Amino acid sequence: MRIGFIGFGEAASAIATGLRESGVDQVYAYDAYRSDALQHRVQQASAILVDSLQGLADLSELVLSLVTAKSALPVAREFATYVTHDVVYADLNSCSPKTKQQIAEVFGQGKVKFASVAVMSAVPPLRHKVPMLSDGPGADDFAAQLMPFGMNIEVVNGEIGSAAGIKMCRSVIIKGMKRCSSRLSWLQINWVSQNRCWNPRMLPLET
Predict the structure, then answer these.
(1) pLDDT of residue 175
(2) Do 124 and 16 touch, CB atoms closer than 8 A?
(3) What average pLDDT does this structure show over 179-198?
(4) Is the bond preceding 125 in cis, omega lying within 30 degrees of 0?
(5) Which of 29, 124, 139, 172 could bridge 8 with an S-S bond, Cβ 3.0-4.6 Å?
(6) What are the beta bridge partners of residue 26?
(7) CA diameter of the chain
């Protein structure tokens, strides 16, 4: 299998390294921002750095986009102009459901099967085994091709962007719980100070 990465920062290189160690034949990487750090990540992942997005499109059977939320749509538009064979394009960026839908519209019914992916946790140290949700016309292919290499992918039924919506809702709930925890911690400390007593069991909750 030939997997291409658009953007090769910390998350992409961690996933790529895990996939290579799990038996993926070849990993290609394209990143618009060249640096010594990029070269190090490419070497660490045993990947091949290509000079252009077109080159990546020509070489890859499956493409993972890990750029920025702002760049996700423009990158997809450029990539679409280079596609000459069937390919699965998975967008792993933290975009809104609307942006995921716009990317799907770019590819339409052509040679690209689009998978909208939500990465549900920090990538390191889980690397390629980080939990992911996926939807869209390419979601089944995305999961089928990568799960044999240990990737943790759950396909979500629903419209394109459903996985991103679930991630957004989860984030709101977790932030709300942290605020409640912080508020309860403050109330505990205030009660102890007002009553001038101390009980080790009344330690503030972790935030």
Answers:
(1) 62
(2) no
(3) 49
(4) yes
(5) 29
(6) 2
(7) 74
DSSP secondary structure code for residue 148 in this structure? G
Residue-wise pLDDT tens digits, 94-106: 999 999 999 999 9
Q: Are 163 and 96 in contact (CB under 8 A)?
A: no
How far, CA to CA in Å, does 4 sit from each of 170, 177, 207?
29, 38, 38
Residue with tokens 């000079």: 51
d(CA 109, CA 111): 7
Q: What is the CATH number of domain 2-164?
A: 3.40.50.720
Record the pTM. 0.83
Give every CB contact of residue 67 below 8 A, 6+ residues apart in sequence. Answer: 6, 7, 75, 93
> How many C-beta atoms lie closer than 10 Å to residue 126's C-beta?
15
